[in-house]
Amino acid sequence: MTATRAPTPAELSPTVAWSQRVRKVGGFIQLAFAAFWLIRGGLSHNGATGTSLAAAGLLVSIAVLAYAIQATKGIGGRPTSPEAKRIERSVTIATIVELVASFAFPVIVIAAGHSDWVLPSIAITIGPLLLWLDHVVDIPRLRPVGWALMVVPFILVAAMSGSTLAATTGLGAGVLLLGTAAAGFHDLAVLRSHGLLGPRTDLRLSP
Asked: Which of 70, 94, 130, 198 is most buried, by the most CB atoms less than 10 A from its CB?
């Protein structure tokens, strides 16, 4: 029986290669943010409940990290074709814009006297980035998550305040990002275990 191997970035179409890379590198970034959100949301609760929620969020994030390291081994290298470079520039610019907005929005809401809006204001900045990534590299599951992160924080701000708002925003955003990252890692694990991709194959993984 002939052994299968994961194709190199050069053997894939640029979109597929970057779709894999976003699932891997973007997944690790999402996982880091998910851990922050879960811990921050948990600690917004007082007493033992908050500590337990934060500890649970940390443990789950560590478990997903261990799975991700194994699942993404040998997949998600940087493609180098001219079209791939164009996609890379687009992804990089969108990521930088999101990071700048994630620092600027909290400053704006604090200056406006709404310090409890800090977490919702950060969550809102993540949504457009996820929508753009879906548009550029075709990862359909990012679309509903992106819209949720753009719309739901406004609803929460209208309905809640204080620690309740922070806890709900943090835990909700954390669960969404953790689930999205884990699903992307699973996609890559499937590719590794079954050798589903061959040279120049434009496989569309299900959302």
From this structure: 130
